[in-house]
């Protein structure tokens, strides 16, 4: 089997649909199981969007179906109309029950991300800071580039002093030793190198001039150490919230960029095509473990995006239920709510078309999803 070549495009496609199927299944199970638990009638649990391809089986009055459009899933509640949201068993439930059902889907995506991160830490180990400073990037034409420093190098000593875990010493020497040549001890793979570097002014790729420095980006020398299962779960919980905080920060910057409060963040929004291409790039670069980490990232994205009060998404339905709760059970007319969701859905589909066109253009142009040269 190892000698059988498998087209990378086929691997990417299969991996993408495995990921998408898992994310959709987990999300819709959240809605479905919570509705059943609360006694809300469900008529159908579907993977993919209609038209229906097959009914797998039927149990306790619920049809479990596969549908032809493999880009999502749904739970059809008892008596729910095909074209009008706001009728049927979910609409007739108490507002607090609706909110629980609606929020359960995104929460399952959050739980999935946590479980994947924890499993990865159990397999690979949890990160610990070791002695030295790890070089992440070296800018062209800078003192670091002239000195021969490369990405991935570990600076263990500089100017006759051990760095240890004190990474601030790099910044201090960059500012206090302009024009003075400093000896640097670098660990590169299994080699220990003695280099010379002279801090001074440099310019980054955006043309920003820095009056002093080395011309590299750096961070702690993080290494992976074996961990027990409780340690892996503890770090998985911590890491999940760290990633979510970065996503929230990025979302805030993106919204701020749209309304002119701050510069637009680098990168952009990607759609189904971009995610599929990114899946292939991750597998090629980081293998199976990278694929699962990518899946956890996408799951966290789904958690966050689905809670936004955008018409047709869970967050919008939750907002209408909260309004009903505040109004002590007085419903917004179903036809008005359905209109909001219908308009929102059309806008989302239009946006998806635009994003898909951009994704395809980047694909044709050879622009990688994950960046790099």
Architecture blueprint of SSEs:
Layout: H1 8-37, E1 42-59, E2 62-77, H2 89-92, H3 95-124, E3 126-138, H4 143-147, E4 154-158, E5 161-162, H5 168-176, E6 182-188, E7 191-197, E8 202-203, E9 209-210, E10 216-225, H6 229-258, H7 272-306, H8 314-326, H9 334-365
Antiparallel strand pairs: 1-2, 3-4, 3-10, 4-5, 4-6, 6-7, 8-9
Helix pairs in contact: 1-3, 1-7, 3-6, 3-7, 3-8, 6-7, 7-9
Structural key phrases:
single chain, 373 residues, alpha+beta, Pdz3 Domain, 2 domains, 6-stranded antiparallel β-sheet, two-stranded antiparallel sheet, 9 helices, 10 strands, disordered N terminus
Q: What assembly state would you assign to the polypeptide chains in this entry?
A: single chain
Structural class: alpha+beta
Share of residues in strands: 15-25%
Q: Which blocks of ≥5 consecutive residues have pLDDT under 50?
A: 1-7
> What's the gyration radius in Å?
26 Å
On the 0 to 100 scale, the average pLDDT is: 84
Number of domains: 2
Number of strands: 10
What's the tally of helices? Answer: 9
Largest sheet, if any? Answer: 6 strands, antiparallel
SSE order: HEEHHEHEEHEEEEEHHHH
Shape: elongated
Distance between the termini: 32 Å
């Amino acid at each position: 089997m190892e000698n059988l070549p498998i087209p990378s495009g086929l691997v990417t496609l299969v991996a993408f649909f495995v990921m998408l199927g898992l994310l959709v299944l987990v999300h819709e199970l959240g809605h479905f199981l919570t509705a059943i638990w609360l006694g809300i009638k469900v008529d159908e649990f579907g993977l993919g969007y209609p038209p229906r391809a097959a009914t797998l089986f039927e149990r306790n009055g619920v049809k479990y179906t596969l549908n032809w459009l493999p880009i999502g899933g749904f739970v059809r509640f008892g008596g729910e109309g095909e074209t009008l949201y706001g009728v049927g068993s979910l609409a007739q439930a108490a507002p607090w029950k609706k909110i629980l059902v609606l929020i359960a889907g995104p929460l399952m995506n959050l739980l999935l991300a946590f479980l994947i991160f924890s499993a990865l830490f159990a397999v690979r180990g949890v990160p610990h800071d070791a002695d030295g400073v790890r070089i992440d990037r070296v800018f062209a034409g800078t003192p670091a580039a002239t000195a021969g420093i490369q990405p991935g190098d570990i600076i263990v000593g500089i100017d006759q002093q051990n760095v240890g875990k004190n990474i601030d010493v790099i910044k201090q020497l960059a500012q206090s030793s302009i024009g003075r040549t400093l000896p640097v001890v670098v660990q590169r793979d299994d080699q220990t190198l003695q280099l010379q570097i002279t801090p001074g002014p440099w310019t980054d790729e955006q043309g920003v001039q820095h009056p002093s420095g080395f011309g590299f980006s750096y961070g702690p020398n993080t290494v992976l150490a074996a961990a027990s299962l409780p340690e892996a779960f503890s770090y998985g919980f911590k890491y999940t919230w760290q990633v979510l905080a970065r996503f929230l920060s990025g979302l805030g910057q993106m919204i701020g960029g749209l309304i002119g409060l701050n510069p637009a963040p680098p990168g952009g929004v990607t759609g189904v095509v971009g995610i599929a291409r990114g899946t292939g790039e991750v597998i090629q670069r980081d293998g199976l473990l990278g694929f699962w980490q990518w899946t956890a990232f996408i799951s966290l994205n789904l958690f966050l995006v689905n809670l936004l009060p955008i018409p047709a998404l869970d967050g919008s339905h939750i907002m209408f239920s909260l309004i009903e709760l505040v109004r002590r059970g007085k419903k917004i007319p179903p036809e008005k709510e359905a209109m909001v969701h219908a308009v929102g859905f059309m806008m989302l589909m239009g946006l998806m078309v635009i994003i898909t066109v951009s994704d395809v253009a980047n694909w044709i142009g050879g622009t990688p999803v994950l960046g790099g040269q």
